[in-house]
Each structure stands twice: as structure tokens, then as C-alpha cells.
Design goal:
79 residues, mainly alpha
Length: 79
């Protein structure tokens, strides 16, 4: 993920695909806290998450046993 981080940080204006790929990578490798931080940063930058982004976030929560956070993101997704 170090190389992915360098590539991501070098992007001037990452799109939803780049954000989602980076979030997914952290979720896949069990780094839920980084995945959730990235998601919040993405949203604060004005990027609207898509269904694939939410799947990555819910996967991160699931793998880390973060039930309350998972419910929060599921509720956000349903709004």
C-alpha cells in the first residue's frame, strides 16, 4: 500500500475510482481505520461515494468487527 499511497498523493484531483480503490486496498489488507479515515476525507472533499465505495467501507467495518460504525455507514448509504 505504500506505493499506492505515493501514487494517490501524486494525483491532482483523484476521482471516485481512485478514492474507492485506495479505500478498498486498506479494507482488503485489514486497515479499517485508514479506510474509514480516507472515506471521511473523500466526503469532506466533496466527493460523493458510490455503491462500490460503500461496499469497501462496509467490508472494512465487517473485517474489523466495527458493528456500530458499519451500521452508521449503512444508514448513510440508505439516505
Amino acid at each position: 500500500l505504500d506505493d499506492a499511497h505515493k501514487v494517490f498523493e501524486s494525483m491532482d484531483d483523484p476521482d471516485i475510482v481512485a478514492w474507492t480503490a485506495f479505500i478498498s486496498g486498506h479494507a482488503y489488507y485489514g486497515n479499517a481505520s485508514a479506510a474509514l479515515r480516507l472515506f471521511e476525507k473523500m466526503v469532506s472533499c466533496g466527493m460523493k461515494p458510490n455503491s462500490v465505495t460503500f461496499i469497501a467501507v462496509l467490508t472494512a467495518c465487517s473485517h474489523a468487527g466495527l458493528v456500530a460504525q458499519g451500521k452508521h455507514y449503512l444508514d448513510t448509504m440508505l439516505r
